[in-house]
Amino acid sequence: MTITNKREPMSLQSIQSECSSAFTLASAPNVSTNYTHIPTSQVIEDMIELGWTPVSAQEVRARKGRGYQKHIIRFQNQNIMIKGNDGDDVFPELLLTNSHDGKNAFHLRVGLYRLVCSNGLVIADSEFSNVAIRHMGYTFEALREQVLTMINALPNLVQKINTFRDTPLSDEQMAEFALKAASLRWKTKNIQIDVVELLASERNEDNGVNLWNVFNRIQEKLVNGGINYNNGKKTRKVRALKNFTADMQFNGELWQLAEEYVN
After folding, report:
1. Confidence band, pLDDT 50/70/90 cuts, at residue 2
2. Mean pLDDT of the chain
3. Which pLDDT value is given to residue 128?
4. Beta bridge partners of 57
5. What is the pTM of this model?
6. Per-residue pLDDT, 5
7. Cα dist from 239 to 71, 196, 254, whole Å
8. Around 158, how many Cα atoms within 13 Å sit in the side-chain half-sphere?
9. pLDDT (tens digit per residue) in 183-192
10. Cα-atom radius of gyration of the chain, to the nearest Å?
11. What gap in Å lies between CA 104 and CA 96, rounded to an integer?
12. In principle, which of 84, 123, 173, 254 could form an S-S bond with 169, CB 3.0–4.6 Å?
């Protein structure tokens, strides 16, 4: 199978055009004098030196505090890939979030990027929880230590994915999982959604009743949108999650929900 969905590396110039706040050279004016400003661009360059290439950049839309708002940079190491059956290959990602308004430390999270659907996941469990790196005392060595810790945990992530693949779900379990996932997306019980549509497969790689396939089918539709739902008043199309903070929260909660179905 020919892979066409591989992320392309981003240059520093292209990151700056998409996410200018990552290159802010000073903290917000109202930040305490005790705050140590480390521009995200410095961490990006350090990550590149560690072999992790930026592949995506995004910042929160801001009317106030523009240039200091929260932003996210996703990194991949092209030498690290999790091979799957029938071309369902996955690149582990490191997700770096930060802001320059004094409200956030650097956070590193582990994510996954599936080539077959151009979809990013966020891992959220006790073993792969996000790591905070304080601005004060930041060093290249401290970053390298955290990155190595995450890399060393990747074999356990492979095992977890394989466990998902080896966990079959009954029709009742699939329907239950779909409804619980929808409730995570909207945080309400008033949403009505077609379970059959939500569980439908868009590609051969997602066919099957194992937890990994079901999880990915549901995740893609609830993150990218396009299917119908009813809010009790009218039928609408599910909109894509554009806010990366909401996207990461939903993805993390969905991962934790999937873990409940592992025997």
Report:
1. very low
2. 86
3. 64
4. 73
5. 0.87
6. 62
7. 21, 18, 17
8. 13
9. 999 876 677 8
10. 19
11. 11
12. 173
